[in-house]
Design brief:
heterodimer; A: alpha/beta; TIM Barrel; Rossmann fold; 3 domains; eight-stranded parallel barrel; five-stranded parallel beta sheet; globular; B: 639 residues; alpha/beta; eight-stranded parallel β-barrel; 29% helix
């Protein structure tokens, strides 16, 4: 039994192990109330072995609504929803707490149509609204709000409450502004909540470590707050980053190492005697184990790891392999930021737990029909996901791949700096496929489909160069560079017709090899799709480091020999010649659809249907066998 | 408003075999008024929204576009035809007492939709990525085309069965049918590529068969994609229209493509009535033609109708600003003017903001049944104070307004001096007309500090005034915001007082368009201008209004330097230093003036019984909040 499996006492209650599913936004609320989706989502992580589940924030003030789908915990109508969450999590054997919070000046008036209430009249960067300054009476009203919501949580049968004092929180704002009102307010809140939940439930706080802002809070401030509240709380959770300002610190993308925030729980743990939770992009059981074993924390928070694999905890305790979060942030962070329900690129069932059996990562679910012989054509993420899902249903699956490696576009994309973890998905899917007995044939272009009952076409897409590239050897596609077929050097112009990682990956790869790289896009923002996944800031730092120049608002009209491209600034209509030694183009590829003559069902999935992201490939591959007759 | 214009808008007009009671159409638009528990149905708030326009005299109401197949889910609460029958029925019933014709908006957003909710691919004529999302759609196969045709027909049948007078088929902005018509998006090599109008013709034919001759079939049709190299142009549309004319009763020409979404319902930077000539040229015998495109003024509408340029006018935003538009005209009154800012009504936004209006404040009912008629003093004649005074006067409450300056409108006259914001001057004029008609006095030259409260609750305004007709301590405080001390010249001061000569740097942490407009004006005066902003865009708030891309083009053409992801770190000795907020890299250039476009702040506000502070005096925000809070305060004082 690893250190992760040891039970831990949180005041009046005991968590069965050290793995926590911490609070994070899901956008699963409807009409400001918790839903069956919340219960199913949290329940799945409890069933998957987590020791402690903490719900997403429940607001203590109806006027506090920075995003549409924030639960208004003050409405007594939330109690049945809380009851459903408690029942679902308890059925899985975990404890469940509700996080209570108020966003203060980090909120928006878009939904409330009322002024934002803040600790001062300085606007917060994200929504930029000038707050109305909370009076003493206003703060007292909020203390009552915390108490009221805590009473609803208790009535719903949850095991307790966590007070959000970090990330997006009025309490963080009070502490951060060094307000003398900060600690008295927090202590009043804790007393009100304790009164509401009684001595038999758990009360914790989530304290703010590094804000990532010049002059902002740091680990020592977290220690100070933790010490002050220690007599009133049963545990201390920790955080870094401000949600509306330094979000990449909270939810870092791939490229940021596990345990990057460990110094905060370490410092707090040295100062208080109650259990301390640490967080920080722990995506594998080994990383989680190390966080606890090293003494950095008593419990370890794993959010994205348990989104990607709901059975992360039980697998960690059993020493088994998990399907890893790759830190792509495409379906969790990016979707939630767009008011959409939380999803996951590697686990397509996330967000649909209440309507679908969450069984694809669990043991084989039986096919409803007779087992079929399934041919999957293509070994990229869509094909691998299709093979895994079909094999889990008991079908006999053969996967053919034209090239000599699995992974398709991911195998190439993972060769770029800070994109290595993309290969983890390929490795995990391939491992699952092998375990399930999928027959994998590499270097096998599909010729005939004899002797099968169904075909999944997952043949991906092929590069597509624009018409101006025709006849120029030194105008190449990003995949040519990533695959090593060409090695551009000298003055390289990367033309980004896609706005995702393809252009930035190749630009950085070549710049690090010494090329003089400029990127060019028609969009108003360079590498715009890197912003929602929180990759953009790191990209810009690295681009500056290696001297990549980024140019926006420009399109290539034509290319002449000697390699001069005519570049149009489309906002002004000015055309400028641009000399380069190589031009690398990143643009949407063209679906690769082999013509197959067959009478068995053929299901197209992933890029061969329409070139899109990892999520579409894995989702459609996983669902492919649902389209077989009789399924 | 000249009374003679009334009958022009007010006249009945035949649409096929039905008759609309006026020539004013309320067009389809995204509302986010759905009940979140039934997000794809039309709910009670939709019904109220349309009923109000019918009651106000609209001749035709077109409901929010409903998707005709489930694969189309362009925004989270986009109506789905299969789930709309009850809602259509309720809307039709609500509008029937007024004689207003109700047409169900039907559409399919194609490649301009969203894959976020279906989690499947977008479907479009060809694999051309949408410029907004960048997403490559899947190519609609023949079976999918047949399903779209059937979807339009069955949805139309359902709408008419539910009691609608007909349907409006969407081939305008955000429409698969437009994408099929356009060389920008239809690169097919089958029959639907050889004849790009084939799908539209099939859909309209199927719809007509489904609803019969009695129901109205309308068509919203892009007539100019503003992309002549491959897009739809008016000559192309003329031939299309002649083909489909026998199938439709009503056509609404609109403009814009996926490349120019903002051009379809543009803000005040585009002169109203921009489709008038196109509309006139496209008129077809037997089809009622509707003039759309920023028709917000009654005089323009009446003039187009009188000249025979159109049979009806679409005045969607004008009716958002004043639901009683036609009724007001009938009564010889002036409707509340739409200011064409698009800040509150352009609701196609992933955050699902409920549709609102900068000037109408629909969240607070306008009609008041006042119980208290004790006098009220309104301090400040900006939009918050003016709206409060108007509401009080209409509720029968004695009211007077005191204003520190010699002008009316607060910041609005300054704002109205900026490019694209001119219509705010009309709003001020309208308030002055309204208050004058109600006999509300405005005393200028009286500051809040000059108001003295007397024992017994009376307020003494100025020396020469007697106290007996003044507020008895009941005050709406609408004194506005104050400049926030900072490193540069506050933007309000720059607008008010002008700037010394030399190169200007505007630092804009707000991004709502004020800095953009000031930069444009200064550049227009021949000044060297740079805007420095912390985010990835200059004027990101303009995404909401549809002006974001156009604003960048105007700035670029005017030679304004756009410096993003940066902040000013030093300004001294004729030089500004700016640092990249991510990399820290610093740049300096000569600058004589630094303008701080940061937010203003609220002044200290006294707290006393009977005093309600509103608008920027609470927290500096926009005109919408000022008007909303001004009206709410008036209602509270009269309750």
């Amino acid at each position: 039994m690893s250190v992760l499996g040891e039970p831990v006492r949180l005041g009046p209650r005991v968590a069965r192990n050290r793995i926590v599913f911490p609070a994070h936004l899901t956008n699963a609320a409807v009409a400001r109330r918790p839903t069956a989706q919340h219960a199913a989502y949290y329940g799945a992580r409890a069933a998957g072995g987590a020791g402690l589940v903490i719900t997403e924030e429940q607001s203590v003030d109806p006027a506090d609504r920075p995003y549409e789908k924030l639960v208004d915990g003050t409405d007594p109508a939330v109690v049945p929803g809380y009851r459903a969450i408690a029942d679902a999590v308890h059925a899985g054997g975990a404890l469940v707490l509700a996080q209570l919070g108020h966003n203060g000046g980090q909120s928006s008036s878009l939904y409330s149509r009322a002024p934002v209430d803040g600790v001062d009249d300085e606007p917060d960067p994200m929504f930029g609204e000038v707050p109305r300054v909370l009076s003493e009476a206003g703060l007292a009203r909020l203390v009552d709000g915390f108490g009221l919501v805590a009473s609803h949580v208790a009535a719903g049968g949850l095991d307790g409450v966590e007070i959000q004092c970090s990330q997006a929180s009025l309490i963080r704002q009070l502490v951060s502004s060094r307000s003398p009102r900060a600690l008295p307010f927090l202590l009043d809140v804790l007393r009100a909540v304790r009164t509401a939940i009684g001595p038999d439930r758990v009360l914790g706080v989530r304290v703010q470590g590094d804000e990532g802002i010049p002059g902002g809070l740091s680990a020592s401030d977290a220690v100070e707050v933790a010490r002050a509240v220690e007599p009133l709380v049963d545990y201390v959770n920790t955080a870094v980053g401000v949600a509306t300002r330094t979000l990449p610190l909270i939810e870092p993308p791939m490229g940021v190492p596990a345990g990057y925030a460990a110094h905060v729980p370490s410092a707090v743990r040295a100062a208080v005697s109650v259990p301390v939770i640490g967080v920080g992009r722990f995506t594998t059981p080994a990383q989680a184990r190390e966080a606890v074993a090293s003494g950095s924390c008593d419990l370890v928070g794993v959010v994205r790891g348990q989104i990607a694999d709901p059975s992360f905890a039980s697998r960690a305790l059993a020493g088994e392999r998990v399907r890893r979060c790759i830190g792509c942030n495409q379906e969790c962070i990016a979707r939630v930021g767009l008011d959409q329900r939380l999803g996951c690129a590697v686990n397509p069932l996330v967000g649909g737990e209440s309507t679908a059996a969450n069984g694809y990562l669990a043991a084989s679910t039986r096919a409803k029909s007779a087992f079929a012989r399934v041919l999957v054509v293509g070994g990229g993420p869509a094909g691998l996901a299709a093979a895994v899902a079909a094999a889990r249903r008991g079908h006999a699956v053969t996967l053919t791949e034209r090239s000599d490696v699995l992974g398709g576009q991911l195998a190439l994309a993972s060769r770029a700096p800070e994109r290595r973890e993309l290969a983890n998905l390929v490795a995990d899917l391939a491992h699952e496929a092998r375990t399930l007995g999928v027959v994998v044939r590499l270097r096998t272009p599909v010729a005939s489909v004899e002797g099968v009952d169904a075909v999944v076409l997952a043949t991906g897409a092929r590069p597509s160069l624009p018409s101006w590239a025709v006849g120029h050897d030194r105008v190449v596609d990003v995949t040519d560079v990533l695959a090593g077929r060409v090695t551009p050097s000298g003055r390289v112009l990367v033309v980004d017709a896609g706005r995702g990682h393809a252009a930035t990956s190749v630009a950085e790869l070549l710049a690090r090899r010494g090329a003089d790289v400029a990127t060019l896009t028609a969009a108003l923002v360079a590498a715009g799709d890197l912003a929602p996944t929180l990759d953009r800031e790191r990209w810009r730092r690295r681009a500056a480091e290696v001297g990549i120049a980024e140019h926006t608002d420009r399109v290539v009209l034509a290319c002449r020999d000697g390699l001069v491209v005519d570049v149009l600034e489309h906002l002004t209509g000015v055309v400028t010649p641009w000399a380069a030694d190589w031009v690398v183009h990143a643009g949407p590829p063209t679906p690769e659809v082999p013509s197959l003559v067959t009478h068995v069902p053929v299901v197209r999935v992933g890029d061969c249907l329409a070139p899109r992201g990892i999520d579409a490939a894995v989702r459609e591959g996983t669902a492919a066998c649902e389209h077989f007759p009789g399924s | 408003m000249p009374r003679v214009l009334g009958p022009v808008l007010d006249g009945e007009v035949a649409l096929g075999l039905r008759t609309a009671p006026s020539r004013v159409l309320f067009g389809p638009h995204v509302t986010h008024l759905a009940d979140p528990r039934r997000p794809r149905a039309l709910g009670p708030d939709h019904v109220a929204h349309y009923r109000a326009r019918a009651a106000g005299g609209a001749g035709v109401v077109v409901t929010e576009v409903a998707s005709v197949v489930a694969e189309d889910h362009p925004y989270e609460d986009a109506p789905l035809a299969d789930l709309c029958s009850a809602g259509w029925s309720a809307v039709a019933e609500a509008c029937r007492p007024y004689g207003t014709l109700v047409l169900a908006g039907l559409g399919h957003a194609g490649g301009q939709g969203s894959s976020a909710y279906t989690r499947g691919p977008l479907w479009a004529p060809s694999a051309v990525p949408d410029p907004a999302s960048g997403e490559v759609p899947a190519v609609l196969p023949p079976s999918g085309i047949a399903a779209v045709v059937e979807g339009f027909a069955s949805a139309a049948a359902a709408a008419v069965a539910a009691g609608c007078d007909g349907v409006e088929i969407g081939a305008g902005q955000h429409a698969l049918l437009r994408q099929f018509l356009s060389g920008l998006t239809n690169l097919r090599d089958d029959a639907y590529g050889a004849d790009r109008a084939l799908l539209l013709e099939e859909v309209l034919g199927a719809v007509r068969r489904a609803v019969g001759a009695d129901a109205v079939v309308g068509l919203r049709l892009t007539v100019d994609e503003l992309a002549p190299w491959a897009g739809i142009t008016p000559p192309v549309v003329r031939s299309v229209l002649s083909r489909v004319a026998p199938l439709v009763d009503l056509v609404v020409p609109v403009r814009g493509s996926a490349l120019t979404v903002g051009a379809t319902r543009p803000d005040g930077h585009t002169a109203p009535g921009f489709l008038r000539a196109a509309c006139r040229d496209l008129r077809v015998e037997g089809v009622a033609t509707v003039l759309a495109g920023s028709v917000v003024d009654v005089w323009l509408a009446a003039s187009a109708l009188a000249a025979g340029d159109a049979d009806l006018v679409e005045m969607t935003r004008a009716q958002l600003a004043d639901a009683d538009l036609v009724a007001q005209v009938r009564a010889g009154a002036s409707p509340r003017p739409c200011v064409l800012t698009n800040q509150q009504c352009r609701a196609r936004d992933v955050r699902n903001p409920r549709i609102s209006c900068t000037v109408a404040a629909p969240e607070v009912p306008e009609r008041v049944v006042g119980r208290s008629a004790e006098p009220v003093l309104v301090v400040g004649a900006g939009p918050a104070g003016l709206e409060a005074a108007r509401t009080l006067a209409r509720g029968g409450c004695p009211v007077r307004v005191v204003e520190r300056s010699s002008a009316v409108g607060g910041l609005l006259p300054l704002v109205a001096g900026l490019p694209g914001r001119e219509r705010f001057a009309r709003l001020v004029d309208w308030y002055v007309e309204e208050l004058t008609a109600s006999g509300v006095p405005i005393s200028h030259g009286v500051a809040w500090s000059g108001v003295v409260f007397q024992p017994g609750g009376h307020a003494d305004v100025g020396r020469q005034e007697s106290t007996h007709d003044l507020a008895t301590g009941r005050v709406v405080l609408a004194t506005g915001g104050v400049d926030r001390p900072g490193r540069g010249t506050p933007i309000a001061a720059a607008l008010r007082d002008g700037l010394p000569p030399g190169p200007v740097v505007i630092e804009d942490p707000v991004g709502d368009g004020a800095a953009v407009a000031l930069a444009e004006r200064l550049a227009g005066d021949g000044r060297e201008v740079a805007i420095v902003a912390p985010g990835v865009l200059i004027g990101p708030g303009l995404a909401r209004t549809g002006d974001l891309v156009d604003a960048q083009a105007r700035l670029a053409r005017a030679g304004v330097r756009r410096v993003t992801e940066s902040s000013v770190t030093a300004f001294a000795d004729g030089s500004v230093t700016v640092a990249d907020v991510v990399t820290g890299a610093a740049t300096s250039w000569p600058a004589a003036v630094l303008v701080d476009a940061g937010p203003r702040r609220a002044p200290p506000v006294p707290s006393r019984p009977g005093l309600i502070a509103v608008g920027d005096a609470v927290a500096p925000r926009t005109v919408a909040e000022a008007i909303r809070e001004g009206r709410a305060a008036a209602r509270e004082l009269m309750a």
